[in-house]
Amino acid sequence: MREELNQKKIDSWQGILYVLGIVLLVAVISFAMQFVAYILKMQVITIISFVGIVVVATLLIKKRLQNYAYIIDRGNMGVERSTGNNRKLLAEFHIKDIVWHGPLAELPEEYKNVSHSKLTFLPLAGAYGVVYRDLNGFMRRIAISPSDAFIGELKARQEKIRERAEKKQAAAERAAREEQEENQEE
Q1: Distance of CA 76 to the CA centre of its chain
Q2: Where does the record place Basic and acidic residues bias (predicted)?
C-alpha cells in the first residue's frame, strides 16, 4: 500500500507570482545590504547577504515542493520524501519492530525522549506517531500524517505478524515438548 501526502497544487499564475515575489524580495534585500555596505565601507557584507538570500530562498522553495509517501510493503513500512522527480527513502523498518503507534498527543511518557523525525509538512498537533527499533536496536520515533485507511492497514499487518509469531512459537514449544517426551521414553 502506498499513500501520498502532497502539497496543495497551485496554478500557473500563482507560480509566476511566487517567482516574481521571490525575485523582488531578493532585489530589495540585496539593494538594502549594498546600501549598508556602502555606508559602512565593508563590501564583504554584500557578498555574505547575497549568499544568505540564495540559501534562504532555496530552502523556502524546497520546503514548498516536498511531498511525502507512506509505504507498507509486505512486512516493512517506509517513508519517502520526493521533491520533483527526486525520491529519497527517509525511514524503513519492519512492522514487527514497531513498539508503539498512535496519535502523538497520546504518546506515552517513556517515548518522549526518543530520537524523532517530522516526516510530514502538516502541523504536529494532528500527527500520528510511530515508535520503532531500528536495525541497530536504537529506538526511533517518526511523526507522519497518514489517512485512516493507512492506519487500519498498518494495524491489520501488525496483527497478522503477531499472530504468525505466536503460531511459530507455539509450534516450537510443541516440538520441544515432543522431543522431551521422546527422550524420557528412551
Answers
A1: 15
A2: 165-178
